[in-house]
Design a protein that fits this description.
Layout lengths: L9 E8 L6 E8 L4 H12 L7 E5 L2 E4 L24 E6 L8 E11 L9 E6 L10 H10 L2 H13 L4 H15 L6 H15 L1
Antiparallel strand pairs: 1-2, 1-6, 2-7, 3-4, 3-5, 5-6
Helix pairs in contact: 1-5, 3-4
């Protein structure tokens, strides 16, 4: 049988970043043969996380390293199919859990399971809301405070003050780079999200 004729099993997952308001979330379709490590990489791409901080999954009360090989464990990451998730089941993904207390906790809900899926639809982000926290933001509390501060009116006023004060082009460019993420903080672009996933999709096939 050719590869194009194979049937694939997949999960539809809704990944919610807790303690964000409005909520930041993504809905993805992911192959069941993908491992927890590949799900970890997917979440990292969609939420802008790096591998600079510890992360793990909590499934049915048990902790699983997000990348066990990198963590020095002898056994690799299990595939999602091994857990036999059922519809509406929830599990957790924690990014940055210094001192065993997660800074960024994601709730992952299994919305659907599918035994057959068109190949082009096997791995993609199909919906979402909100932009992930920009890299300097260290916690949900800080993210909320920054969103309340950096309103569109405040941003325009801040740039106008710089222009009126005779700021150099270099200074304005630097300020725009800093402020740009806050101009689009409530937006979600599915096309951009799926472009980010393309490389991982190829690696997982």
């Amino acid at each position: 049988m050719s590869q194009d004729n194979l049937s694939f099993s997949s999960y539809q997952l809704r990944i919610l970043l807790r303690r964000t308001s409005p909520h930041v979330w993504r809905r993805i379709v992911i192959p069941s043969h993908f491992t927890l490590t590949q799900l970890h990489q997917t979440i990292g791409l969609l939420f802008g996380w790096s591998n600079a901080h510890p992360s793990h999954f909590v499934v049915r009360g048990k902790s699983f390293a997000a990348d066990p090989i990198a963590a020095g464990e002898a056994v690799g990451s299990p595939p999602l199919s091994e857990f036999q998730f059922y519809a509406r089941e929830r599990f957790l993904y924690d990014y940055r859990f210094e001192l065993q207390s997660p800074v960024w906790r994601h709730e992952i809900r299994v919305e659907k399971t599918a035994s057959r899926q068109a190949r082009g639809d096997l791995f993609r982000c199909i919906a979402g809301a909100g932009s992930p926290p920009p890299p300097p933001v260290a916690s949900p509390q800080e993210f909320q405070q920054m969103q309340e501060l950096f309103t569109s009116g405040y941003l325009l006023h801040r740039l106008a003050d710089l222009v009126d004060g005779g700021a150099s082009e270099q200074r304005l460019a630097s300020e725009l780079r800093y402020l740009r993420p806050w101009l689009t903080v409530g937006e979600f672009r599915s096309g951009e999200a799926n472009r980010q996933l393309q490389g991982l999709n190829g690696a997982g096939q």
